[in-house]
């Protein structure tokens, strides 16, 4: 009987002193897709293992010199991950038990067919595959939970970093406020990483991604038979996060019924799975994030006032990207790395954009531009058309030059608000403002005259 090919390659070591078994067994397992190495005695097996890793070893117990029971611990000590199958004499239960005590994962008594041995090896190989997947998932989880740095030196981001350091050691709930794309989950992960619960689980859920019924079962779990399709009991995320941190993104999207259940958990740690009358106790630190104004939601009756005050013990507000324009070069450098450069006009376009999608929009624009760019140089025409259009660019025009001091700068390259903000930052000093904007002072005068004529504004003059 020929079994299906292996999904993952398995390195197999065959150790037996009988050529009549070893040679045909070696060919058989090679046909099945194994990577096979044969050894005629224990000494050869030890020498082979010194230079190669094996997933599974098949060892004959009765060999001249060092027998299988003596070889077994030698191989396992050298490689604790090795799975060993011992071939024992017919009816020798005592030796099989001894082999298991010394580290074998299974045994097979002679006589047997190669198909039977293959079935056993495949069963052991599944354990190898599961261990591989487990290691991979743990690494993925570690990478996901490793907090990424908060990029920026602006006053707003410096304040966010300061608050994280002060808030993290507490076990109180935290409310993170900010527009979409500002990095609320990034802040939540930083809080968890700097907390006393850093070695405990951090569980993340997005309320906007799930309908109310599914969200409830995800948060609180359910018992077998609680509803159609509940064929087994399932713990909720509160139970999974027990002892650690639960981050609920888009917290303002919670429906009224879920708000009441969540309030109960926050008040005394009590919860019930769907379909259960049994109360469970959990201890979870809650971090919630929302882009909604919860004060307005409370006033409109869409959000429970008591839950709002329960969660809003400690809060952090993340500034939008348009309020931290000086951080854009740092963000761009972080996401692009050393090998990329920006073409003429790109920096100024970034600075005059409104960024409704904030840092997430910037990252997406950079990722798109990297795909379309030539020679690792990002040009204006590599950027999304909606970004160029929102910044006042003709989406069909390409190759604009970076403005230099003395140039007559097109008005569309500068947002009115940006000019006024720079002027305000320099306390009305037009010479300093023009230098920061990278334009001639007379160009700034023309821009201000245009604004005054358009909006009726008078800008105080200060040299």
Keywords:
5-stranded parallel beta sheet; 44% helix; 3 domains; Helicase, Ruva Protein, domain 3; Rossmann fold; 463 residues; alpha/beta; elongated
Number of H- or I-type helical stretches = 19
Estimated structural class = alpha/beta
Instruction: Indicate the mean pLDDT.
Output: 84
What's the β-strand tally? 16
The CATH homologous superfamily of the largest domain is termed P-loop containing nucleotide triphosphate hydrolases
**How would a crystallographer describe the biggest sheet?**
5 strands, parallel
Shape assignment: elongated
Which blocks of ≥5 consecutive residues have pLDDT under 50?
396-414, 456-463
CA radius of gyration is: 33 Å
Please give a quick description of this structure.
By secondary structure, the protein is an alpha/beta fold.
Report on the structure:
- It is a single chain.
- The chain is of the alpha/beta class and 463 residues long.
- It folds into three domains: 11-141, 3-Layer(aba) Sandwich (Rossmann fold), CATH 3.40.50.2300; 155-319, 3-Layer(aba) Sandwich (Rossmann fold), CATH 3.40.50; 323-455, Helicase, Ruva Protein, domain 3 (Orthogonal Bundle).
- It has helices spanning 19-31, 42-49, 68-78, 93-101, 114-145, 155-167, 184-193, 212-220, 237-240, 256-268, 294-299, 305-311, 328-336, 346-352, 358-372, 385-390, 416-425, 430-437, 441-455, and strands at residues 11-15, 35-39, 56-60, 83-88, 106-109, 174-177, 202-206, 221-222, 234-235, 245-249, 270-271, 280-281, 285-290, 314-317, 341-342, 377-378.
- The strands form five sheets. Strands 2-1-3-4-5 form a five-stranded parallel β-sheet, with helices on both faces. It has a five-stranded parallel β-sheet with strand order 7-10-13-6-14.
- Helix 10 (256-268) crosses helix 12 and helix 18 packs across helix 19 (441-455).
- The longest helix has 32 residues, at 114-145.
């Amino acid at each position: 009987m020929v079994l299906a090919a292996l999904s993952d390659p398995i390195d197999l070591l065959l150790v037996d002193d009988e050529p009549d078994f070893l040679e045909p067994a070696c060919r058989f397992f090679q046909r099945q897709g194994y990577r096979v190495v044969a050894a005629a005695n224990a000494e050869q097996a030890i020498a082979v293992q010194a230079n190669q890793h094996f997933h599974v070893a098949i060892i004959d117990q009765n060999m001249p010199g060092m027998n299988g029971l003596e070889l077994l611990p030698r191989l396992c000590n050298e490689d604790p991950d090795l799975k060993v199958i011992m071939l024992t004499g017919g009816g020798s239960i005592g030796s099989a038990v001894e082999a298991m005590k010394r580290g074998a994962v299974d045994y097979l008594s002679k006589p047997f067919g190669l198909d039977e041995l293959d079935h056993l090896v495949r069963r052991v190989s599944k354990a190898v595959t599961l261990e591989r997947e487990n290691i991979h998932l743990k690494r993925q989880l570690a990478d996901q939970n490793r907090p990424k740095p908060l990029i920026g030196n602006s006053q707003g981001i410096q304040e966010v970093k300061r608050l994280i350091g002060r808030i993290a050691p507490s076990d109180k709930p935290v409310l993170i406020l900010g527009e979409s794309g500002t990095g609320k989950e990034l802040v939540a992960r930083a809080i968890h990483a700097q907390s006393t619960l850093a070695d405990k689980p951090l569980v993340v859920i997005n309320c906007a991604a799930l309908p109310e019924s599914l969200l409830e079962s995800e948060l609180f779990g359910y018992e077998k038979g609680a509803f159609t399709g509940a064929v087994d009991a399932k713990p909720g995320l509160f139970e999974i996060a027990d002892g650690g941190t639960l981050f609920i993104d888009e917290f303002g999207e919670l429906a009224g019924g879920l708000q009441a259940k969540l309030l109960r958990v926050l008040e005394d740690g009590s919860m019930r799975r769907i379909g259960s009358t049994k109360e469970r106790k959990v201890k979870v630190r809650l971090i919630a994030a929302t882009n909604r104004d919860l004060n307005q939601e409370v006033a409109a009756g869409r959000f429970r006032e008591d839950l709002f005050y329960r969660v809003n013990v400690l809060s952090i507000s993340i500034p939008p990207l348009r309020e931290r324009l000086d951080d854009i070069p740092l963000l761009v450098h972080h996401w692009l790395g050393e090998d990329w450069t920006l073409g003429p006009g790109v920096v100024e376009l970034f600075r005059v954009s409104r960024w409704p999608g904030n840092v997430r929009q910037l990252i997406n624009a950079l990722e798109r531009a990297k795909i379309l760019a030539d020679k690792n140089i990002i040009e204006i025409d590599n950027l999304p058309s909606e970004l160029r259009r929102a910044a006042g660019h003709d989406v069909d025009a390409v190759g604009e030059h970076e403005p230099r001091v003395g140039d007559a700068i097109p008005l569309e390259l500068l947002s009115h608000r940006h000019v006024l903000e720079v002027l305000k930052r320099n306390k009305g000093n037009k010479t300093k403002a023009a230098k920061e904007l990278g334009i001639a002072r007379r160009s700034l005068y023309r821009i201000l005259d245009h604004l005054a004529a358009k909006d009726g504004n008078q800008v105080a003059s200060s040299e």
